[in-house]
Every structure is written in C-alpha cells, then in structure tokens.
Amino acid sequence: MMSFSFKVLRIGISFVIMCIVYKAAVNSLPELSPKQYFSTLQAGRTSLAYFYQADSSSNSIFLEELNKAVKPLQDYGISVAKVNCVKEEISRYCGKERDLMKAYLFRGNILLREFPTDTLFDVNAIIAHVLFALLFNEVKYITTLEDLQNIENALKGKANIAFSYVRAIGTPEHRAVMEAAFVYGNTYQFVLTTEIALLESIGLEDIEYAHLYFFHCKSVLDLTPQCRRTLMGQPLTTLNIHRFIKSMEAPLLTEVAEDPQQVSTVHLQLGLPLVFIVSQQATYEADRRTAEWVAWRLLGKAGVLLLLRDSLEVDIPQQANVVLKREEGMPVEFLVLHDVDLVISHIENNMDVEETGEDEDDDVEGPDMGIQDDEVAESVSRDRKRQLPLELILELTEETFNATVMASDSIVLFYAGWQAVSMAFLHSYTDLAVKLKGASTMLLTRINCADWPDTCNKQNVTEFPVVKMYKEGENPVSYSGMLGTEELLKFIQLNRISCPVNITSIQEAEEYLSGELYKDLIINSSVSALGLFSPTMTTAKERFTEAGKLLKGYVITGIYSEEDVSILSNKYTATLPALLLARHKEGKVESIPLANTHAQQMVQIITNALLETFPEITVENLPTYLRFQKPLLILFSDDSINPLYQKAVLAVVEEKHLDSVIPCWLNLKNTPVGRRILQAYFDVLPPLPLLVVVNLHSGGQVFAFPSDQAITEQNLLLWLKKLEAGLEHPITILPAQEWKPPLPAYNFLHMMDAAASQRPTGKDPECMKETDIQENNEEQHEDKSAVRKEPIKMRIKDWERSNVFKAEKSFRHDNKEL
Amino acid sequence: MGLSSLTPVWGSPGLLLTIALYPALTLYPAKTLASTHRDYCVLGAGPAGLQMAYFLQRAGRDYTVFERAAEPGSFFTRYPRHRKLISINKRYTGRANAEFNLRHDWNSLLSHDPRLLFRHYSDAYFPDASDMVRYLGDFATRLGLSVLYNTTIAHVTLEKARQAWNGHYFILTDQRGQTYQCSVLLVATGLSVPNLVDFPGSEHVEGYESVSVDPKDFVGQNVLILGRGNSAFETSENILGVTNFIHMLSRSRVRLSWATHYVGDLRAINNGLLDTYQLKSLDGLLESDLADLAVVKDHKGKFHITLRFYVEEGNQSAEAITLPQDDSDNFAMRVAYDRVIRCLGWNFDFSIFNESLRLSSGGEFSKKYPLIKASYESKGSRGLFVLGTASHSVDYRKSAGGFIHGFRYTVRAVHRLLEHRHHGAAWPCTEHPITQLTSSILRRVNEASGLYQMFGVLADVVLLKENATAYEYLEEFPVQMVAQLEAITGRKARHGLFVVNMEYGRNFSGPDKDVFFYERSVGHTEDAWRSNFLHPVIYYYRHLPTEQDVRFRPAEWPLPRPTAIHHIVEDFLTDWTAPVNHILPLRRFLENCLDTDLRSFYAESCFLFALTRQKLPPFCQQGYLRTQGLVGTRSLRQHRVDSGLLQDYATAGKRAEDSGQWPGYQGPGDQPQAPGPLVQPLNSDREEL
C-alpha cells in the first residue's frame, strides 16, 4: 500500500515542479527560417514545425491554437516552431501553394509524419495527433472486433489492456487517452477505436461519445474465453483516467485487522471511499467470497477491504457488517446491510451525491470554513443536550451575590453561558460539586456574567472563566491553578486550614512535620513548610506569614515561634530564622536559612521545593518544569518506571551530570497522549522504554538514547557526554512554525467591492486589471477556477491587494469635493 | 449663589458654611461684582444636563447646573402638548442583564442606582410626560446633583485668560446680574425656540406650542396643519375624529421611522392620519415649500391658501388676491380652512451666546443646531460642548443622539474626554490577553446598549499591543474622531486596532424603501455583509486612520476603508452567540487579521504541543503554560474524540513537515489531497521514442 501512495505522490511532486518550470519559462512560439530550424534539430529530440508564408492570412487561427500547444507539448519534451518560408531560402517543406502549408513532425532530422493543418483544428487535436504519432507502438488503433480479440488473446496472462472508444481522432477525449498512454503505455496495452459498431459488439447499449474499458488480462489463463472487463464510469479526462487506472492497480481486496479509522489506502487519496466488509473467524471463507464479489462490482468506485473483527482491538458495533470510510480523517460509518446489492447501491448512490456535492464545492474552493475546528467549542456544543447536575451549585444573582458570599465561605465560578471555555470548565465544576456533595463546608456557587454584568464588573471580573474564593474576614482570592476538577478540589481542601498554621508546641510541630497533624490533607501537598522563628523576629515572621498566605491553597505552611524554638532548630541543624521542609513521600526534613529573605523569595523557595528530582511528568505538572527553560530528559515507560532505570537516572543526577537538563519520566498509562508524542519523535517506534532528550527551548532537537543499549548509569553518562560534545545526531527536529490562522476568513471587503463594481456607478474595472495584471498572471496556474468565479476567501495578502481600490476610490471622492 | 453653597461640593459644615453664607445674605448689592468660579458649568437641567451633572458629580468635579425653571425637565412640563411620550418604556425583556435591558429602555438616564430606572416611574409603554418630569426631579435630588434653579443665564461671553484650561473663561450672567466664570461650558439647553416660517399671512397661523389640545374646539372644522413631524401628527391624531378633514402640508415627503430606522421620523403610534388618507376618508397629505406660501383671511374669518407670489403682486384687499384655483381649478387646497396650525419643530436658542463664542449655526441644518465637531465640542471655541438634543447635528436622521436613549451615552463620551483632557485620567479601558479578544467583542455586541442605540456614532475600539499578544478595550468612543483617538483617550494605537460598530444594511433604510420585502433577512454567514437589520460590523485597521482618511472615506461608509472588515450575520433575536454562525466566523476574521491561531485547546492538547513543537498557540501560552490549562472532563474528551478533533493531531508532527503547511493540527475541513495530474516531463526513459 505504501508503494502505491508513493507513486501518486511522485506524480504530484513532478506536477508541482513543472508548475514552477512553467512560470519561469517563457512559452512562446519561436519563429525561424528553414535554415535556422534545421540547424536546431538534435538527434533523439522530437519537434513539430509549421511551415508557413508570412503574408498568408488564413493561418492565424491555426497559429493561435499552435501557440496554445507549445507549453503542453514541451512537457512531453516536444519542441514547437513556426518556420517562415518567405525569407529568401526555399525548403521542400514549404509546399507549392500558399494555402497548402503543413506541419511536420521530426525526430532529429528524420521526418516522422506530416499533418495537413485542417487535421490540427485545435490545441486538443494538435496534442492528440502528435502523441498518437509518437506512441504508435503503445497505442494500437483497431477497427474490428477481430482485432480486439487478437490483441486480447495475445496478452492473456501477460498484460492488462486499456481499451477506449472515442468518437473521432483529435477530440479532447482522444487527447486524454493519449496523455494517459504517454504515462501508462509501458505498463498497459492501449487500444483505441473510433468504430461505434465495435463497441456495440462488445455489448454496450447506451453509447456516448467516449468510453474506456480496462481488460484484466494479466492474471487470466490462456484458456479463458475473455478477460474480465471494467468500464470506467466517469467522463474521459486525463485526471479521471489516471484515477481509474490507479484504482485498477490497487489490490482488489485487502485484509486488515486494525482500526478502520487508521486504515488508509490509495483509494482515499484518489477521492474514493473505503468499504470494509466485516468478517468473523467462523464465516471467514464466505465473507471473503462476498467481499471479492463486492470488490469486482465496486472496482474503480471504491476500495474494498476485509475487516477481521476477531483480531481487532477497537470495538465496532455488534450488528454492523459494513464499515464505510468516506474520507481521510472523517469518522467512519457503521452500516448494517443485509443484501450485497445494498452495499453496491449504497456506495454508488453515495457517489452520485458526492459528485453533485463536488460541483457545489467548486464555487467555494478548498476547505469549509464553517466547520468548527476549535476542540473546546466543538466538544461543549456536542454535549449541550446533556443535563448537568447544576442544582448542586447555587446560582447567584445580582440580588443574592453579596448576601451569599458574606454569609458563608464560598467558591464562586464567574462564567458566561455563551463562552465555550467557561462552559467546559463548568462541566469540571459540576463534577467537583458531585464529589464534594455534603462533604465540604465550602459553598459552591456560580454566576452567569452574561446575565449579571454589573456584579461581575464589581468583582473585577472582565474575562471568563474566573474562580474566586470568599472567606469571612478575608479578601477574596482568585484561583490560579489548572481549570480541572482535581486541581480545584485540592485548592478547596488545602484552604480548609488557614495557612500559615500557628504551631504552639514542640510535639505539635513534630506531628506537623511527620504529616500526622494534617493526615487527610497530605495527599494534596507533598511538602509541608514550617517557619522557625524566635519570638522577637517580628519582621521575618511577618514576611513568612505573607508568603504563607500567598501559597494558601497550594502548599501547607506553618509557623513556630515559641520560646523553646531552639529545640527544633538544634534537632534539624537550622539557624534561625529558618525554614523546615518536610517531604512526606521521602520522609525527609531539610532546613533552609531565611535571614533577610523577602516574602516573594520565600514563596519561590517553597515552590521550588515542591519540584521533584526525577518526577513523573503529567499534563498537569509539565508547565512547572518548563519554567526553567531547560531541555527535558524524558523516559517513556508504558507503565510504572522500572526501579533500575530510576536508580540509573538518579545516580547520574546525584553526580551532578544532569544540571543542564531536567530528568523526568512519562507513564503512558497515566498520560496516553504520550504515544502521540513518541509518534512525532520516531518514524518507526522502537520498543519501550525510550529515553529521549528534547531541547524544547533552543532548536527543538530530539535525541534518542540508542535502543540497543541498556539504560545504565555508565551508558547514560556516556551518551550525555556525547550529546554535550555535539557528537549525537538528533532523530528529529521539532517544527518551529508559528501558529497561523487554521483557515481563511470571508473576504467581505472583496465581496462588497465586487458588488459595488457591478453597479453602473461603480469603479472602472479596467483600472483594476492594469494594476493586478502581474498577479493575475502568476495566479492562473495555481487556480484556474479563479476565472470562473472570484474566490471569496482571504488571507492578509489578499487584503493588501484589495487596497488598490482604496487609492482609486478616494480619488473619486476628491473629485466630488472639488 | 447662596443656595449653591449648600451643595456637597462646598460641603464643609460648621464655621466655614456660616462664613460663606454671611456675605451672600448680607452684602446683596456687592454680589454682582464677585464672580463665582466653576470648573464646569452646565446650562439646562434637562435630561442631558442632569446626565452630565451625574458624571461630574461621580468624578468629584467642581460643577453647577443652571436651570431657568424651578425644577428639572421644564420642557416636559409643557411638551409634548398631548402628554404622551413616544419613547418606549419596555419593562420586560425576559433578560436579567441590566446593560442589555437598557437597549429597550428609552427614558432612563445612566446611574449606578437601580431605583432610578424609568420603569419604576410608569407602567405605560408610551409613558406620560409628567412621569418624565417626576423622574428627572427624583434623579436630581436622589443623586444630590448641584443644580441652581430659577437661574436664567441671559448672556454668555468669552474672556481671554492665559492660565485658563482652554485659554479663556466662559462668563455667564444670570437674570440678577450675577456672573459665573467657567473653565468648561456644557450647553444642554435643548431646542427651545419654535421654528417659524415667515410667509405672508403667517400671523394667522396658530403654533403647536399654544394651540388648544381640547378636541371640542375643533368640531366640524377644516384644519390645515403645516409640518410633517411627530408633533404635527400628534396634533392631528388628537382631533382626527371631530374635524371635517385635516390637510397636512410640508416641503418633504413623510418619513416613517419604521422605514428609516430613525426614531425622530414619524412613529407608527402617531400615524392615524396616514391610515385615513390612504383609506380615502377626506384627510390628506400635500407637499409644497412653505416659504412660497401665503395665507389669506377672508371676511368670514376663513383662511385661503395662495402663493406668496400672488400676494406680493400689489396692494390688494384680501378678497382681490389671486388664488391658485383661479388659474387651476383643481388646486388641492382650494377649500377654505377654519384653522391653520404650525407644527414645525424647534430650533436651538442662539440668542444668549455672545459673538465672541463663535457658536454659529451652520452646515446643512442651518438654523436648527449649533455647529459642533464629532466630539461634541463647538467648532468656534474650545471648551464649549453641546450636549443632548442640541447636539443632534452629529447624527441627525441617522442615529439616536437627539434623544435620551442616545445622548445619555454621548454625554458619557464627552465626560470621558474631559476627564482625560483636564484631569489626566485616560479613557477607561480593560486590558486582556489576545485569547480573550473574541469573547470581549462578543460580550459587547450582545449586551452593550451604547453601541446599540448610538449605532454608527459610538463604537468600541480595540487597541492592539505590540506583537498582538494583548489588547486594550475602549468602550463607546465617538467614532468620527478616530483619527484623534490618541489625543482624546490618552491611549496608544501603535500596533493596529479594531473598531466594533453596529450598522443597518447600506440600502435597507430610507423613506421610500420597502423594509418588508421578502428575503430581507440573511441567514448564511458568507452573506453576512448583506445583512439588513442592525448587526455588528468589525473594522480592522493596521494603522490609525488619519483625518484625511476619515474625511474622504467612501460615501455611505461610517468609517474609512479598513484593511479588512467583518460582518456578524444579522440575528432575529439580536443574540450573537451561536457557536458556528456567529462566533466561528468572527474568530476566523480576527485570526486572519492578527495572523495567529485563536482557538482554545484542552490542557492535553497543549501538553502535546509543548513537547512536539517549538511554538505554542496563544491559548496554550497564556493558559496552560501559566498552569491555568483547561483540563476538561471525561465526557468532553469523548466528544472531542467523536468529533475527530482529537484524532486529528495524532499524526500532526510528521504531516506538517511533509506538506510544508502551517503547523500540524489540521482541522477536519481538510480535503484529501487531490491526485496530481498525469503529465510527467520527458526527462525519463521516454526521451528515446
């Protein structure tokens, strides 16, 4: 499957390259004298020359068409020239009479074919005829059924046939077939006829002006009377033939055992849907036959796959027997179709719908700007019909607000009913209310600022969502943590105690440090901070109290300043004023001197103490570690970390070799999004665990620890040293693109201008043409449809251009004033 | 002056008060010599004067309001003559939002006191004028506004003074000869002089201001009413049932407010005569220039309409004057009238202003309004502002600036301007990170009353900060002054700006327009620019427009041509909160103006971006990275997966590199790659054909 898509890609790329070449080259029809012309001919190069007499008037239309053919023929490596016969010398190609001029096709200096100009009636005819002459061997022209049968018999077991009927040589359909033959002529035998009787004899009833059949002869035996045939349903255009042939090349039936959402084949790239026939172990043989039958019927219309339900990891609905995937990235549809014909008709009917849809899309061009691409807005909107248990949260109004927050300790969520982000958070908030139901003294309330703007303004809330806590006798505190249930719950619980807590006895202090005192709160705060002061250190105490208040809700802080404080300071070898940090998980207490430290610095010391040396990185805690702007050393593990690895990393940390990076690990079970991160780092995912260094802040390089080495202290050290020395190559570099608008916006200014210009008083359209001509020329290749219909979307650069109107308009205005 | 010393401005009690009162009471003759200084003098205690007094009071400024009558709102004690106000008093909207409700409250003034809402003063949808008088009286007393009643300012002059705020003082002289020296003069005297048209026989015409309001006085009479405004129709409405017929005559055709969207045009509540005219019940409308007219009184006391031209032909007796019907015997006004009533509106009273003030009338509405700038400051003298009805020249026949529900906001704008000019207080604004921009705009267009009432005149302005990471939001700026924005507001507009305006469709409103045509409403977002009903329009300028830009803007445009423009599609409920049809196109517009991605993301997505790309979208930068990420719930996550938005970034990293497009995270709108065309250049083995 990979190889197919690669081919398409290659053609796509070559097309892009050609477009660039087009733009650069000047495509004009060179005019030469016969002598000049023959001197330019090179061996092996093909060229088309039109010999004419300059004073002849009847050839102007032909010359125009020939001019149009220059560029397409150049793409096939064929040069085109017009040769002026009047200029002194006479060539035998010049003909005798003025109006009997001809075009000649040469390879090197060998004449391949001569064309009377009336057979080359337009650009299609020119290209069709020239390619037809060149592809003489690749495209067999036949007139009878017998010819066809002979070719068919000769190719059985050898090659497939592309048989096409066109009404006449030189038509656009003929050109399309020839262009296809140019690309696929080596792979398939192309057969061409203009005989309608031949088509009738192979059984086609309503014959239109062109048809193409694919004869599947390669895989049949000589004895088979006839190759299987597939009729192409679409009109004969180069693109359609290409798509059709590509879909013929794809395997008829593929078996898959993965999530249909993830499956992609060449069909999707060709704009064809994928049909999965769901199979079970028990009925596998029958299912496979059915699927094959369906595949033949849908050949050229859809890709057919056999989906093995038993070995599938994702769930698909029990009854569904067909899965339909219309487009890459679109959710799949699960269908229950009891008749095989239903499967066929479902797809065929859908294709019709799709085609008419495509026509409409032509007007709009490109992606639909009306589709929601904001994940928060979309998920909230999808959930809008679910009733949230909002009755658990007291709704406040202008009248009740003050009375409520004064009467009891309250949490208030300020939100706006129409704003997606605050509604998303309201979901988390209601989850919190369910958890806390009856278990907290804190009153959970909300106020919809879309209804009560004055109240919100008075509380200084001008953006949403905002959470504030109102406690008696204290200033309201804004919550500044993650907008999630767990994090807010933690905040509320830690706010039950009024930090910093005043510790009054040595025994109490010990209980505090061991975590006994606030047993139930310890899970919310991995560290307890205790400030030790002698009773006279009033300034230091004040500062610490301030710091404790700032940290309230996030860390437990306490203060001890009794006469016997020295007992504690001696025990923990601290010099007063000092800070004791009790790490409950590790059961350690460390001391930090606090002399001349300001409140903000204390806050910093305590928050830094919350950080771990080798943390498990999660969605919630990553930002706190990113603050340091250092590269991350991440160990990806699919479950809890192997203690050996942990030991190895910690050993390296202890030797201070890891100062320049932040070591951490990621548990894919807790943080499944980690898988997507790995996908971005590795082309082919090696087995876990994986150790990488990500340089997020300068350069974006990602380095991977060699997966064939064991994660040991030595190996790790060695690798880090190589890294530092610049001896390692990054496995990837993270993209550094800016976040640009995901889609364009409507260009209303443009539309208003267009409407204004249609009115008689509007601006003179000539004016715009002159100034825009340069850009229009450039654009033609990228967007041919622009001629049909003005594109109605914009990016900034379009606006710049539309400013051309501005100058002109104000000029008109000036005139009026005068 | 003695009374004014009791006001809170002078409010130090005790000894000082006694000292202040003493000279005032005893030295009466000396009073004329002592000129009292005020920073702000407000002329007129009508709605506009009181509104300005309120803002000055709240800001703690030194001010006095001068009022001729003994109570506020004296205009409303007499007018409208038939006592029914045509400003609606909508007491219920089904919404709690007080700001939104002001959109449908046309009578209240702005204040912080919810008791001072007009709905507490009248139950009537079209309230009685005496309720307005009562309301204004309460407004002045309850808020303790400093008003000097029974003080007629007879004369205003200018006195040069280098130290004065504006280089001069305004000297006001009242009827007692007392003078007041004012740094800033705020004229809120309304339109008080009945508009008279001078034509032969105009002395026979009764005025709206004095005509009887008792229908009994009109029984069986032929009545001609000059004028076509609400006062003319109000008068006719009152007597429609008792007269033989009423003819109405005016220069221009009737303009119906529901066709023009201008509240000063004829309101449906007054248009009974139109109904009977069109239903052939003898009443009728005529168009003619009043200045060409003449009224001749015959010996029976009846009035005949003729032309000034005929009257001026010679000294003829009344009976001998040529009448139009002598030549043209089907002349419409050939009947004799029992009464001719003039209802031609009012003009501004220019008489008290000395020439030195250069407060002239001018422009298109030659006599009616004084000439002012879009900042409501007189073109003639700095520091003189015109407020209220008299300031309507700024948006005459366009918006609501001549009416309470409009000028309460323009007064606030003038006050904000003054606060910056004289007290260094920059225009109030809020500053937010750029991720809040869509919400900020949506919030205002959905609730702001000033934008809604003063559409096209007051607009919100968003000033972008450097690199467009944050912005300042300024409310209700007089948008015609946008070129002077930095000087007026004290805010900087260096990095581009958005202007949020409300507009009707360009060709929707007008006296001859059919506003009920089929398909008048637009439902598709891509047609939003064709919206007809009032809808939000957002202008984006990369640079602050210059005065030239404003002056030479395209015809019909309220603002100069922007870099880009966005219309939020009109909404039947004026509720622009639909996620896909209102919010999404607005976001796309803002994104493309700012060249950034303004989507919101859950913390999990930000986490992914943080570890797989070097740059983060603004929402993640300003939220997640500051540990304020949006975590979401399980059910929301499931919806995200279902919608395909979560799935999509699965392969983002690689795909972005392949396609060379903008950073990964492709929207679901992405089309599958179309297969490349077939042709290949002939550089391969094909060359040897």
UniProtKB/TrEMBL annotation, chain A:
Instruction: Report the SUPFAM superfamilies cross-referenced here.
Output: Thioredoxin-like
Among Pfam families, the record links this protein to:
Thioredoxin, Thioredoxin_6, TXNDC16_2nd, TXNDC16_3rd, TXNDC16_N
Q: Where is this region: Disordered?
A: 757-789
The chain positions of domain TXNDC16 N-terminal read: 28-131
Q: Which residues form the TXNDC16 third thioredoxin-like domain?
A: 252-341
Compositionally biased, Basic and acidic residues: which spans? 761-789
User: CDD domains given for it?
Assistant: PDI_a_family
- What positions does the domain TXNDC16 second thioredoxin-like occupy? 132-251
- Give residue ranges for domain Thioredoxin: 394-493
Domain of life assignment: Eukaryota
Q: What is this protein called?
A: Thioredoxin domain-containing protein 16
Identify the taxonomic lineage of the organism of origin: Eukaryota, Metazoa, Chordata, Craniata, Vertebrata
Coding gene?
TXNDC16
TrEMBL record, chain B:
Q: Which UniProt keywords apply?
A: Endoplasmic reticulum, FAD, Flavoprotein, Glycoprotein, Oxidoreductase, Signal
Annotated Gene3D superfamilies: FAD/NAD(P)-binding domain
Question: Which coenzyme or cofactor does it need?
Answer: FAD
Which InterPro entries would you find in this protein's record? Answer: Auxin_biosynth/cation_transpt, FAD/NAD-bd_sf
Q: GO biological process annotations for this chain's record?
A: ERAD pathway
Q: Where is the composition biased (Low complexity)?
A: 660-677
SUPFAM superfamilies per UniProt: FAD/NAD(P)-binding domain
Q: Does the keyword Nucleotide-binding apply?
A: no
Q: Where is this region: Disordered?
A: 650-689
Presence of keyword Flavoprotein: yes
General function of this protein: Probable flavoprotein which may function in endoplasmic reticulum associated degradation (ERAD). May bind non-native proteins in the endoplasmic reticulum and target them to the ubiquitination machinery for subsequent degradation.
Family stated for the protein in its record = Belongs to the FOXRED2 family.
Q: What is the name of the protein in this document?
A: FAD-dependent oxidoreductase domain-containing protein 2
Species this protein is from: Phyllostomus discolor (pale spear-nosed bat)
